[in-house]
Amino acid sequence: MSIEVKDVYSGYGPIEILHGVSIEAKKGEVTCIIGPNGAGKSTLLKTIFGIIKPTAGTISFANKEITGSRPDKTLRLGISYIPQGRSTFPYLTVMENLEMGAFIENDQQKVHENIEEVFERFPVLRERKTKMAATLSGGEQRMLEFGRALMLHPQAILLDEPSMGLAPKLVDQTWSKIVEMNQAGMTILIVEQNVRKGLSIADHAYILVLGKTAHDGPAAEMLGAYGELIATYLGGQNSKACM
Ligand SMILES: Nc1ncnc2c1ncn2[C@@H]1O[C@H](COP(=O)(O)OP(=O)(O)OP(=O)(O)O)[C@@H](O)[C@H]1O
Ligand SMILES: [Mg+2]
To answer: Does residue 42 have its Cβ closer than 6 Å to ligand 1?
Structure first.
């Protein structure tokens, strides 16, 4: 199921942030969005998921137009989303956080089966199931976010900087979970600050600068022209990614 964004304009009230963005996240592929701070990467994911409505342009999923769909409807259609930064409910338990991931599902039996599946995929969550999310480590919280996002068996997932703020070992663990999800057939659209890493797992990538797509291409090709890419589009802004 691919996600197609065509000539989308979006922003916050009178402030336009995206000025005609077109991208496609192809079915079963990993598509990566990179770009300097403030380029509008998170705004793009929020617009696709339906947290903010575009003022122009179209968004489709599996060839069906979903422009302006509310998040609960987008979720129901099979797109899940993990926002930038911490997004667990800190004062709810691990179980309750997972249940929140399936808040649109009325069949409690199904919810419990899905929680069981999430526990199989992320055993650490089973061990912590009665603990409040706030007491989990950063890495465990990220796994809880992943588990919550998988509760409804999404066909596509939007990930906003999943490796941000994690220790290197946990970053690797996060990446392997993303690869696993993709191997299970999920379409993945990821925003990533670590350009090299993002390009190394992606099939295709887009560079977003000042609310517009400045460049796109096969990720392997872009990785081959890494130095040039950073110099041309990301300047000194992405010094962390250059290491
Ligand atoms: N809720 C909001 N209300 C008004 N402006 C906002 C809001 N959220 C973000 N912006 C502005 O929109 C612009 C794009 O922000 P966005 O978060 O999409 O950038 P980004 O590319 O994800 O950056 P980063 O790499 O720092 O996460 C920024 O100028 C930001 O200040
Ligand atoms: Mg962002």
So the answer is: yes
Average pLDDT over residues 69-97: 95
Mutate-to-test residue for ligand 1 from 5, 8, 12, highest number of ligand atoms within 8 A of CB:
12
Q: What is the pLDDT of residue 62?
A: 95
CA of 40 to the centre of ligand 1 (A): 6
Distance 35 CA to ligand 2 centre (A): 9
Whole-angstrom distance, CA of residue 209 vs CA of residue 177: 28
Domain covering 3-242: architecture: 3-Layer(aba) Sandwich (3.40)
Nearest CA to ligand 1 atom 26: 37
- pLDDT tens-digit series, residues 207-231: 999 999 999 999 999 999 988 888 8
pLDDT of residue 169: 84
Q: How many helices (H) and strands (E) does the chain have?
A: 11, 10
Cα separation of 60 and 216, whole Å?
A: 19
Q: What is the pLDDT of residue 53?
A: 97
Tell the residue nearest (CA) to atom 18 of ligand 1.
40
> Could you tell me if the CB of 15 is within 6 A of ligand 1?
yes
Sign of CA dihedral 162, 63, 15, 240: positive
User: b/e string for 37-56 if b means 16 or more Cβ within 10 A?
Assistant: eebbbbbbbbbbbbebebee
Taking the centre of ligand 1 as the mean of its atom positions, its distance from the CA of residue 62, in whole angstroms, is 28
Q: What is the pTM of this model?
A: 0.94
- Where in the chain are the domains? 3-242
Contact assessment for residue 105 and residue 111, using Cβ atoms and an 8 Å cutoff: yes
- Tell whether the model's pLDDT for residue 237 goes beyond 70: no
